[in-house]
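User: Run a structure prediction on this.
Assistant: Running it now.
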Amino acid sequence: MITGDDHVFMVHGSPASAVERFLTSWAETRPDLRWALAGGDGFRPWGPAGTALPEEGAEVLVSRDEAMLTWWDEHGYAPDGTGEGPFAVLYEAAPWSSLRVTPGDDPYGAGELRYEPYEVELLGTGFHMVTVVTPGTGGFSDALLAEFRTALTAS
């Protein structure tokens, strides 16, 4: 059952190590965190030592604990009674070397003139698309995305 909200990021280079950093940080406050690769061997506890996500692409499924796995089966990406919910991180290499986009924010930063959106073109190879599927919007999803952005932008 797919009921979550998609949040898409474009990054240069593989996001695998950033996803690992994020899960390690997220697990610090969720010691029973469970994760799985779609099509893999099932859910297991997150342990960063010895865990290496595929560089080119993966679908990573994440649950706070065993109880949330049952919740996920019954309710999809809906928050449970605690306000938290399961989520997924999907990433893959971009199949393009040129992409036209219209940024909502001025790509040159805030200037003195009012920004009118216009088309820009992303050029190059090595881009990856990352989709985070969250249980809707609000506190839990906002916190999750903020921490995920931090992991993606860390050097």
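The two ends are 35 Å apart (CA to CA).
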